[in-house]
Specification:
The protein has 248 residues and is an alpha+beta fold. The chain is built from five helices and twelve strands.
């Protein structure tokens, strides 16, 4: 006969499984995988997770990767034995399943998680340069790229091009807020390139001191949105993947 504490916890888990809630268990368990191969994870304390989309993972106390996992969609079932709870996670599209026997529960969380935040991927300066080569209008209308990562006497210039008036223009990219050191770098470029060259600093922001130094030396600042560039890069990668899939 089942103990009352185990039955109460099993009832909570059954309701969560039925409602497709997020489930996180810190528990003493063992796991039996049956599918393309066969594995058995002996008894130990672990973190067992069933996500709202039925993704399933078992994490050990150390290490980055889960020791057992199954991608969605899964059919999740739960039964109660004499001294343990049996959680069965069976893949719907493939003949694979994990049988988890839970002998003790230290912590239980069940419920809905609210997550509407967007994932922000921070771009490298090289990735920003790639986007600008494809979309030079992001620098300004009429701008054309003639070369990138060009080695001049005073250093490597991120982007070289010409503006709408056919004036030679160099563009220096900073992925973070630009300070005085970024402007000093541009001044070194200016000494080697001559006064006729237009110089633009592209960055998400600039310090007040750096902006004043730019103005004193007749150099320009253009603000870039890392968020918008990230979305643009993500869209283009998705389009490329879609194009590849068509030919596979």
């Amino acid at each position: 006969m089942c103990n009352s504490s185990l039955e109460e916890k099993a009832e909570q888990l059954k309701k969560a499984v039925s409602a497709k809630e997020f489930i996180a268990l810190v528990c003493l368990c063992e796991a039996d995988y049956i599918g393309r191969a066969r594995s058995f994870l002996e008894k130990g304390e672990r973190l067992v997770i069933v996500k709202e989309d039925t993704s399933f993972l078992i994490h050990r106390p150390s290490g980055l990767e889960p020791v057992n996992w199954q991608p969605p969609p899964n059919q999740v079932g739960l039964t109660v034995s004499t001294d343990h709870i049996v959680l069965i996670v069976k893949r719907i599209k493939k003949p694979e399943k994990v049988i988890v026997r839970i002998y003790g529960l230290r912590n239980i969380f069940t419920g809905r998680l609210e997550d509407k935040g967007e994932f922000q991927m921070y771009l490298s300066e090289q990735e920003i340069s790639e986007i600008l080569r494809k979309h030079p209008e992001l620098v300004e209308e009429g701008f054309r790229v003639t070369s990138s990562e060009a080695r001049e006497k005073t250093g490597v210039v991120d982007i070289i091009g010409v503006d709408a008036n056919n004036r030679r223009t160099i563009v220096e990219i900073k992925k973070d807020r630009a300070g005085l050191e970024a402007v000093r770098q541009l001044l070194r470029y200016a000494r080697g390139l001559g006064p006729s060259v237009r110089i633009i600093l592209l960055a998400p922001g600039v310090t007040e001191e750096a902006e004043r130094m730019l103005r004193r030396n007749r150099m320009e600042f253009r603000r870039i949105s890392m968020h918008e560039l990230t979305k643009m890069l993500s869209r283009e990668k998705n389009v490329e993947k879609s194009g590849i899939k068509k030919y596979l």
